[in-house]
Amino acid sequence: MAVHLHRATRTDRLADGLAQVLADPLADPFASELVVVPAKGIERWLSQRLSHRLGESALSAGNGDGPGGGDGVCAGVSFRSPRSLIAELLGVEDDDPWAPDPMSWRVLEAIDEHLGEPWAAPLARHLGAEREEAERELRLGRRYGLARRIAGLFAAYALQRPAVLADWSGGGDTDGADGQVPADLAWQPPLWRATLERSGSQPPHQRHADTLAMISDDPGALQLPDRLSLFGHTRIPTTEVELLAALGRERQVHLWLPHPSPALWDALAGQLVAASPPVVRRRRDDLSHRAAVHPLLSSLGRDLRELQQALVSMGAEQEVVAEPTPVDGETLLGWLQADLAANQAPDSARRRLHPADRSVQFHACHGPARQVEVLREVLLGLLADDPTLEPHDIVVMCPDIEAYAPL
To answer: Cα angle at 41 between 39 and 43, to 5 degrees?
Structure first.
């Protein structure tokens, strides 16, 4: 068993590769395939894609594109979110005491009790403890909001930097990277210890360590199939990488990673060193962005660069999924895709955009409602102009789904 990393620049190619893996049935005919996806939209698209690659006629033809292939049914596949899988591994499906919301109340109790202590002076100033009565009463209304934000920070530390909480729990004040906590954040370690005293439950870093030991010592205790896949993730916390690595020693774990630039991956591969546990470095000391020649890869690719380091530390077996023919290099979108894949700076001096090129379009609108109206007209125009275009070919992305969905 091992962790297998499958990488491609196009997500549809990853989906086809996943279908090839799922076409090989599990040993248990009653077991469901487990596929972990980061969002519901990806689950819906992936299930539609797999429905035309799996099925009895597709398997008999060898692929979903053969004669009679593409039954239109995706069955025997269980889609889950990363949170639900990790909750099952940690044994906190019903209630996690270290989730931000329930933790907020213990943080709030700790703040109220220790607000007068010297280490809590920054919190006291923020809450107006030394202000006049009217101002102090107004600022005290911030207490829960402050506690909720701090609880979110502690939960993030538990995911990304469990060694920090382990040090704080033992009385230390380090930042997890061989340095002391900055002076303006020195209130965090004692506040964490005060919160831990009120929990009455196992600290998250200790729970994580015990889970890793359980996976190694008694893998049969987990009600998971012999094979599981993670599809479309571009960011995986450190603790989850360690859990996946532990699972990979007993089961087949497949990571299907969309990555826009094979050239950047290869450039970074020579700089990264496998280490267990992974090397912890401050972001200001991370110089991996210098390998990114294209400005978008440098400014927007930090998550992928950090994920690559974590996967190298895991020792995953790598495989590049077969790529399609080169993209059209005579359109703005084609130039962008080619430059990203080759990790090269845009050559605007030699290129001339054709006046009829509409491969990339910007529509400036005065508000969300108007954006949705324009989007509707643009999509209707595209569907009318291209009879081969279907709804499942269209992806709409927005920064805040709760705000845009009613529109």
So the answer is: 75
Report CA Rg, the chain.
Answer: 25
* Distance from the Cα of residue 394 to its chain's centroid: 22
Query: Distance between CA atoms of 64 and 158, rounded to whole angstroms?
Result: 43
Contact 137, 240 (CB under 8 A): no
How does strand 317-320 pair with strand 252-258? unpaired
Q: Are the C-beta atoms of residues 237 and 208 closer than 8 Å to each other?
A: no
Q: Is the distance from CB of 228 to CB of 247 less than 8 angstroms?
A: yes
Residue 64 has pLDDT above 50, yes or no: no
Beta partners for residue 254, in sequence order: 4, 229
Q: pLDDT tens for residues 215-244? A: 888 877 788 888 999 999 888 888 888 888
Angle of helix 143-160 relative to helix 162-169, nearest 10 degrees? 110
Asked if 118 and 66 count as a contact pair (C-beta separation under 8 A), the reply is no
Helix, strand, coil shares, percent, the chain, to 5: 50, 10, 40
The yes-or-no verdict on residue 55 having pLDDT over 80 is: no
Give the Cα separation of 251 and 215 in Å (integer). 11
Q: Which DSSP letter does residue 180 get? A: B
State the Cα–Cα distance between residues 282 and 183, nearest whole angstrom. 17
Ordered strands of the 33-36 beta sheet:
77-80, 33-36, 227-231, 252-258, 3-8, 317-320
